[in-house]
Amino acid sequence: MAGRGTPATALLDKQRVAHTLHSYEHDPRHESYGLEAAEALGLAPERVFKTLVAEVDGKLAVGVVPVTVQLDLKGLAAALKGKKAKMAVVADAERATGYVAGGISPLGQKKRLPVVVDESAMQFETVFCSAGRRGLEVEITPAELVRLTNAVVAGISA
């Protein structure tokens, strides 16, 4: 399982982006995928980012925020020059991204959605986000994450 690639890892390899994969044994009983990753890998949770799919004015978009915070839906809408945002239906998020909940990566999504990365990511040399499956995180520079996802950087954490 750990050696099997994902669309996210394929994108990183194709683009020749420096990154490190970190895997851990996912516990289905854990209440938070992101906090589980931070704990399992011994990381400061503010460096581990979760990928959340929302609807902004009826269109799907992605917010990437630290696992310790909530997504500020108003902030997400504003960053994308929209009026209103709400969390997406899980099935819609999975269908659009090609990933399962808890393993949704901002990288290599089936349908390229607008992405907003929380500004707090920029203070770190590297950050961690899902590599496209539960139990697999990718460590990457925030600048490369923003570049590869064509993201907007804004304050979207609550």
UniProtKB/TrEMBL annotation:
The gene is ebsC. The lineage of its organism: Bacteria, Bacillati, Actinomycetota, Actinomycetes, Pseudonocardiales. Keywords: Lyase, Protein biosynthesis. InterPro entries: Prolyl-tRNA_editing_YbaK/EbsC, YbaK/aa-tRNA-synt-asso_dom_sf, YbaK/aa-tRNA-synth-assoc-dom. Belongs to the prolyl-tRNA editing family. YbaK/EbsC subfamily. Transmembrane segments: none annotated. Gene3D superfamilies: YbaK/aminoacyl-tRNA synthetase-associated domain. Its EC number is 4.2.-.-. The keyword Repressor does not apply. It comes from the Bacteria. This is Cys-tRNA(Pro)/Cys-tRNA(Cys) deacylase. Residues 36-148 form the YbaK/aminoacyl-tRNA synthetase-associated domain. It comes from Lentzea cavernae.
